[in-house]
């Protein structure tokens, strides 16, 4: 059964944003995140291992809802779908990606950073967006300001979100989840210290205020 954007963004209050160099390590990371209580992850396409990691997790650990991030063009979108992605996040929004999303069965969650981009999303029935880079485009104050003219738009702020400020974002009515990399430390992955990652996930979820 395919998910919609709303379902994806409600799986967990924290969506790990993951950059991987090795597909096998990504599988171990997925299990560590799941053991900690998070069953969704965004694997960015910033490295060559990204698509392989998505495919491996999708096939070998289906309990994890895995999606692709840094989807910047149609080729990225199609590659993500073919690798088993359950959703795609983009850092931005383009008409070509919007049109491609209409031909695909997995949800497209575009990145927006201003009112005009949100209006473009809304015109195309896209009501769930990533605010990116959240901390640089106004953060919590920006999201509060956007709530007035865009009451039907929901956000996943990503970029500069961390353990210390996540609850400031999650307290907002138009925020369903936050994206962050602190729960999936590349350093700990390289060290194969997956137990520590599980611990960080548990501690982070315990601090979520809602």
Automatic annotation (TrEMBL):
Belongs to the KHG/KDPG aldolase family. Its EC number is 4.1.2.14. Pathway: Carbohydrate acid metabolism; 2-dehydro-3-deoxy-D-gluconate degradation; D-glyceraldehyde 3-phosphate and pyruvate from 2-dehydro-3-deoxy-D-gluconate: step 2/2. The keyword Lyase applies. InterPro entries: Aldlse_KDPG_KHG, Aldolase_TIM, KDPG/KHG_AS_1. Keywords: Carbohydrate metabolism, Lyase. The gene is eda. PROSITE patterns: ALDOLASE_KDPG_KHG_1. GO terms for molecular function: 2-dehydro-3-deoxy-phosphogluconate aldolase activity. It catalyses: 2-dehydro-3-deoxy-6-phospho-D-gluconate = D-glyceraldehyde 3-phosphate + pyruvate. SUPFAM superfamilies: Aldolase. Homotrimer. This is 2-dehydro-3-deoxy-phosphogluconate aldolase. It is an enzyme of class 4 (lyase). It comes from the Bacteria. It comes from Poseidonibacter ostreae.
């Amino acid at each position: 059964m395919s998910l919609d954007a709303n379902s994806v963004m409600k799986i967990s209050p924290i969506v790990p944003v993951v950059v991987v160099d090795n597909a096998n390590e990504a599988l171990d990371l997925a299990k560590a995140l799941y053991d900690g209580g998070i069953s969704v992850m965004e694997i960015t396409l910033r490295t060559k291992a990204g698509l392989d990691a998505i495919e491996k997790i999708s096939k070998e650990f289906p309990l994890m809802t895995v999606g692709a991030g840094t989807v910047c063009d149609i080729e990225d979108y199609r590659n993500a779908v073919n690798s088993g992605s359950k959703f795609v996040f983009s850092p931005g929004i383009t008409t070509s990606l919007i049109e491609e999303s209409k031909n695909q069965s997995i949800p497209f969650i575009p990145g927006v950073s201003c009112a005009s981009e949100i209006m473009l999303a809304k015109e195309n029935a896209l009501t769930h967006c990533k605010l990116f880079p959240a901390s640089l485009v106004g953060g919590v104050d920006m999201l509060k300001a956007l709530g007035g003219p865009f009451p039907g738009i929901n956000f996943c702020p990503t970029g500069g979100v961390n353990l210390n400020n996540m609850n400031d974002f999650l307290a907002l009515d138009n925020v369903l989840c936050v994206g962050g990399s602190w729960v999936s430390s590349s350093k700990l992955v390289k060290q194969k210290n997956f137990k520590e990652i599980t611990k960080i996930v548990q501690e982070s979820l315990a601090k979520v205020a809602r």
